[in-house]
Task: structure prediction
Amino acid sequence: MSVVAPGTPDAGRRPEFEREPLDARGIGEIERPLPLIERIVHDDTVQRVGILLALVLCWELYARWLDNALLFPTFTETMGVFGRDIASGVLPDRILTSLKSLAIGYAAGVALAGVFTTIAVASAVGTRLLSTLTAMFNPLPAIALLPLALIWFGLGIPSLVFVIVHSVLWAVALNTLSGFRSVPETLRMSGRNFGLKGARYVGLILIPAAFPSILAGLKIGWAFAWRTLVAAELVFGVSSRSGGLGWYIFEARAELETARVFAGLFAVIIIGLVIEAVIFRTIEARTVTLWGMQR
Amino acid sequence: MSLLEVEGVTLQYKTPRHLVTAAYKVDFAVDQSDRYVILGPSGCGKSTLLKAVGGFMRPVEGTIRIRGTEVSEPGPDRMMVFQEFEQLMPWKTVLGNVLFPMRATGKFPRAAARDRAEAAIETVRLTKFRDAYPHMLSGGMKMRVAIARAMVLEPDILLMDEPFAALDALTRRAMQQELLSLWQQLRFTVLFVTHSIEEAMLIGSRILVLTPHPGRVRAELDADGFGFDTMDRTEFGAMSKRIHRLLFEPVADPVAPAAMAGTLRQ
Result:
C-alpha cells in the first residue's frame, strides 16, 4: 500500500483522459439480420411443428413394427378413419353434441361463479362461505358426482350439465375472488374518487383490474369441464341415442375398432388445442398481455 | 369564506390491535388558487388528513367543508393524485385513462371530453404517447398522466399525496418545476402533502407544519416568496432552518413520551 507524501498531491493519482471512440468499422455492420436458415430453425412454431412431426413418425414406425391393428393402429390408418368419419358426418355430429353440453354447462358454471363471488365480495360471512365451499368441493372430482347426478336427473344432458357446472364453478369463483382481493388499494380509491359505486364500480374497475386472475380461472375451468365431459360421456353414453365424443370412443371400443378409438382421442386433443391455443391465446394477447399485466 | 375549511378535525383508524389517533383537532383553511402544503414527519397523519378531505374517511370529531358543504363521500370535485404508479388503469391507454373520469362522471359531453383529454395530454407533453399503455411509460410519465387525468375534470381542489416521492431525484425536480408552470397557466387550487422541507418551500404558497403522533398543528407559514430562483438566497436557508426547528426541536409535549412507547410496543 502506497502512502502519498504530504505536499505532493499528484503522486499516486491516476491520470484522467479523454479520447475519440474506436473505429468500429472492422466488425462489419453493427446490426445485421441472421441468415434465413438460422431464423427458421429458431422459430417457435417451426420447432413445435417439428416436434409433432417427430412424434407422428415414432408412432407410425412403432405401429408398423408391432403390426397389430387391434392394439396399436398406425397413424395413417387412424387418419383414414378420422377423415372418413368426418366426411360421413358421424364425428362432426358427435363433436357438436359434446360441445353443446359443454357450452351450456360452462356458461351456467361461470354465471353461478359470478353469483357466488358477488356474495363473497359483499360481506365477510360471504367470503368465508365461499372459501369453505371451495375447500370442500374443489378437491372432489366432478366425475365422482355422476352417480348422484344420474339419480337426480337421469340419463341425458341435465346430468352432464350438473357435473360440468361443478367442475367449472369452484375454479372460476376461487380465482375471481382472489383477483378481486389483489386489486391495488390506490386503484380502488381512484375508482371511488371518480364517484363510481355499486355495479359500475365492479364492472369498470374491479373486473378489468382482476382480469388476469379471472382469465386464469376461466382457462382452468375450461380444462376441467372438457375432461369431465368426455369422462362422463364414456360412462353413460350407452343408452343415450345421440352421444358425444366420449360415447363415440366407447362405441368404437365395444366394436374393437381401435383405429376409431384413436380417432376419437385425436378429436378430443385437437379441440382442446384449438380452444387453448386459438381462443384463449387470442383473448390473452388482446387483453392482459397488451395491458402489461401478464408477460 | 375559504374554499376548503377544516375545523377541529380528529382522525382515528383501527389496526387489528390498536385504535390509532392520526390527527388531533386540526384546523386549517385553503383559499382559491392556494398551493397549500401539509408538511410533517412520517406518522403525523398528513396522508390520513388528505384521505379525509378526499372523503375516504370520516373524522371522529370536527368538520371538513368544501365550498360550505360538508364532505361525506369521495367525489370528482376533489381529485386525488397518489404516490403510487398503479393509480392508472393498466387496461386503458393514456388517452383512455384521461377520458375515463370524464366518461364515468358524465360531466362533459362525449365530443367535448375527447377534445379536453387531448388538450390535457398536450399540456403535460405526452401527445406522442397518447395511445401507449401505462406499462410502457416511465414513472415520471405515469405521474404526468395522473395529473392530467385529475385536472381535466376541473375539480374544486387537487389533492396530492406525496406524488413525487417514488420518483428519482432528477425526475422529481423536473416534475416540481412542471407542476409550478402548470399552476402558472391554470391557477388551480392544490392541497399537497410532503415530508420534504425543500419540496414544501418550492411547491407551496402556504405551509402547515404538523407534529407527529398524533398530528397537531405546529405552525402555518407563508412560503409564497420561495421558488427555484431563490434557492441560493440566505432567506431560503433561514426559512428551511426555521421549519426544521419547528419539526424537530423538542417542546414540552405531554403525549409524546406515551406515544413513543406505543410505537415501540408495536
